[in-house]
């Protein structure tokens, strides 16, 4: 039995810990914060329970596959409900697209919005299904050490259909003309950290995930998945140490590493580092053991950061549903202010999650739990005054578009932005979602999952393969555990 240290308790760290422990290793998980979950932590105040980060449960099959690897099912731990409508896009006060759960209703909605678009959507989703099947079953589970890993019959013969060299934007526009349908089809890739013009059309698999596989919610909140993984990890004898920051990784000799933490020193035979990749390399490892230097990181395209408000409202808010995307401003201008000319956005798009529409446990009776998010460029100056400016700006817009008064009913408010991402997670430039999935940062071109100098050290999480998001984080931990155990055996 080897001793394995996993640094970080987000989805990728918990996944890595479970996979390594299930293969008979003695795993210790080190987490700097006082609770586990990383970006998916939750907190409770005044009767409200707020998920701090992820709120969209997409790709339920990936969660099923994760638990199935341990002979479990998600429903052994949490109750999953399918949201109907899945989400809404608000383009104006009386201009709202509500996306139903059933595909037949989605086709109808498309046809009403643009004549002939239902048939086009059928074709689009059939292509998306192929991409999803190959992408999520064949491509994302590769460690991406070499392009040769991708040289299998299905991938090569389907290469043209995977559309790696066309952008999502031109793909979507070759099908649909209505600007609202285009926005609907382009928005899912914003999760991948770049505009639809920069993301390969392979990722229209996200439309298949969003529209065909559905939008789900674990009752109690996304944190229920973390609680489930914690239970699983404990059942596999993983030692979880919270409030235990790793300060130094000392490479002693082959297979032997000493890690210094705020709770003492630990010897280990192998490491899976799932905290911020840049922080782990630049601050915890001596120079000869790093894969990359500062100049490398500086050239990388990060996914956006964000400004978040967790708000408790002492009444029910009209017009909101569980997931609400406020697209009443120009996506192009906002994107330019994130990627091309990074600055605080002039008139941002924003997202509002209102889980209390589905789940009465997350807010007191007759009250609303709101999570407001504005995507912003990473690395911007983050001050209280700026946060307050945007708070007022988006509440006002929300009030107008929802035709409801909100500000006077706010009974709880907390903001979270770049400075918090840095202090809570050591996030490079305060990134929220890791590294963008652009064509130049895909698979082998991402920061490597393995430390090329320290053979018993691997990385996992949103800054390495396969990329940002909860399902990729689960997969990343699984791949890292497998590669480390292959090396140690
Ligand atoms: C606001 C927000 C909304 C999101 N929404 C969605 C969504 O709706 N759906 C979706 O699929 N994805 C979403 N994502 C992305 C998703 O949450 C992340 O990609 C995923 O949770 C990342 O998991 P991780 O394990 O890579 O990293 P993290 O969750 O960041 O975990 C890394 C952990 O390492 C710890 N750590 C760092 N350094 C050290 C150290 N030196 N010693 C010990 N511990 C250390 C950190 O404290 C942290 O707990 C969202 C992210 C954010 C921020």
Q: What features would you describe in this structure?
A:
The chain folds into 3 domains: 3-34 and 242-300 and 438-488, FAD/NAD(P)-binding domain, CATH 3.50.50; 39-56 and 77-101 and 214-218 and 304-432, Polyamine Oxidase, Chain A, domain 2; 102-211, Orthogonal Bundle (Guanine Nucleotide Dissociation Inhibitor, domain 1), CATH 1.10.405. Strand 3 and strand 4 form a beta hairpin. The strands form 5 sheets. A 7-stranded mixed β-sheet has the order 7-6-15-16-17-14-18. A 5-stranded parallel β-sheet has the order 9-2-1-13-19, covered by helices on one side. It starts with a strand and ends with a helix. The longest helix has 23 residues, at 117-139. 35% of the residues lie in helices and 20% in strands. It is globular, with a radius of gyration of 22 Å. It is α/β, with parallel strands linked by helices and 489 residues long. The protein binds flavin-adenine dinucleotide.
The radius of gyration is: 22 Å
CATH architecture of the largest domain: Alpha-Beta Complex
**Count of strand segments:** 19
**Mean pLDDT across residues:** 94
Shape: globular
Total separate domains: 3
Name the helicity range. Answer: 25-40%
How are the strands of the largest sheet arranged?
A: 7-6-15-16-17-14-18
CATH topology of the largest domain: Polyamine Oxidase, Chain A, domain 2
């Amino acid at each position: 039995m080897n001793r394995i240290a996993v640094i970080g308790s987000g989805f990728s760290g918990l996944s890595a810990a479970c996979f390594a422990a299930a293969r008979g290793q003695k795993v210790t998980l080190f987490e700097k914060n006082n609770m586990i979950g990383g970006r998916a932590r939750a907190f409770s105040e005044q009767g409200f329970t707020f998920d701090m980060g992820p709120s969209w449960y997409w790709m339920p099959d990936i969660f099923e596959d994760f638990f199935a690897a341990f002979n479990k099912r998600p429903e052994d731990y949490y109750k999953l409900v399918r949201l109907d409508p899945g989400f809404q896009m608000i383009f104006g006060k009386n201009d709202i697209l509500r996306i139903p759960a059933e595909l037949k209703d989605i086709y109808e909605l498309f046809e009403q919005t643009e004549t002939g678009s239902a048939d086009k959507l059928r074709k689009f989703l059939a292509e998306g299904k192929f991409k999803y099947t190959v992408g999520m079953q064949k491509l994302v589970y590769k460690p991406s050490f070499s392009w040769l890993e991708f040289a299998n019959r299905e991938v090569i013969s389907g290469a043209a259909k995977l559309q790696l060299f066309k952008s999502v934007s031109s793909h979507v526009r070759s099908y649909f003309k209505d600007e609202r349908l285009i926005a609907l089809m382009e928005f899912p890739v914003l999760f991948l950290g770049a505009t639809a013009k920069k993301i390969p059309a392979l990722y229209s698999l996200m439309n298949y995930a969003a529209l065909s596989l559905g939008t789900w919610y674990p009752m109690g909140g996304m944190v229920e998945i973390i609680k489930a993984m914690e239970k699983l990890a404990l059942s596999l004898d993983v030692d979880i140490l919270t409030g235990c920051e790793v300060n130094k990784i000392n490479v002693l000799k082959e297979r032997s590493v000493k890690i210094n933490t705020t709770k003492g020193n630990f010897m280990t035979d192998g490491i899976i580092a799932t905290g911020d990749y840049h922080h782990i390399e630049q601050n915890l490892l001596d120079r000869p053991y790093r894969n990359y230097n500062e100049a490398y990181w500086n050239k990388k395209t990060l996914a956006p950061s964000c400004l978040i408000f967790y708000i408790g409202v002492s009444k029910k808010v009209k017009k909101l549903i569980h997931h609400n995307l406020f697209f009443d401003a120009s996506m192009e201008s906002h994107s330019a202010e994130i990627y091309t000319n990074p600055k605080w956005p002039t008139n941002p798009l924003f997202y509002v999650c209102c889980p209390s529409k589905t789940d009465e446990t997350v807010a007191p009776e007759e009250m609303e739990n709101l999570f407001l998010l504005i995507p912003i460029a990473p690395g911007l100056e983050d001050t209280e005054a700026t946060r307050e400016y945007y708070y007022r700006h988006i509440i006002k817009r929300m009030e107008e578009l929802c035709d409801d008064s909100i500000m006077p009913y706010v009974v709880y408010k907390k903001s979270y932005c770049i400075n918090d991402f840095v202090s809570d997670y050591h996030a490079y430039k305060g990134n929220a979602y890791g590294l963008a999935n652009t064509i130049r940062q895909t698979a082998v071109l991402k920061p490597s999952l393995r430390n090329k100098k320290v053979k018993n050290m691997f990385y996992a999480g949103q800054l390495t393969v396969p990329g940002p998001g909860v399902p990729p984080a689960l997969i990343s931990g699984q791949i890292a555990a497998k590669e480390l155990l292959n090396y140690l055996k």
